[in-house]
Task: structure prediction
Amino acid sequence: MTPAKTRAWILLAVPTRGGDLSQLLGRADGLNKAIPTHAELTDSLGWLRAARLITGDVTNLSRTPQGRELVDRLGRQSQHAFDLWDALAEALQEMAITDYQQENLSPDDVNAAHQAYSREFQRIYKKLKERDEG
Result:
């Protein structure tokens, strides 16, 4: 995946009104059926922050008004989620931001968020299974 495509994926996964890193991982998994790596997260979050498209720290990440506007505008022009993802990647590529700092995020931070996401996924799965078997 290109850097612009990865950054678009992460921007789409950042909760619009705020959420922690485990929520971002869950949304990323839902979009791409994959969990972003530490490297993908540190690069993408740093770049998106430099582009002023996200704000907050790993306990409360959200899109900025500019980030929300960009996603909303391109979303109105897209038929499907994957069309939006592609359009967003193109828009981010055109921004050409080269001066940015990688997000200060340790592998332990990512592992802890992944574990929290996994626990929540298992809790919901168990609840749905019980309902279906009930």
About this structure: The mean pLDDT is 93. The chain has six helices and two strands. Residues 3-133 form one domain.
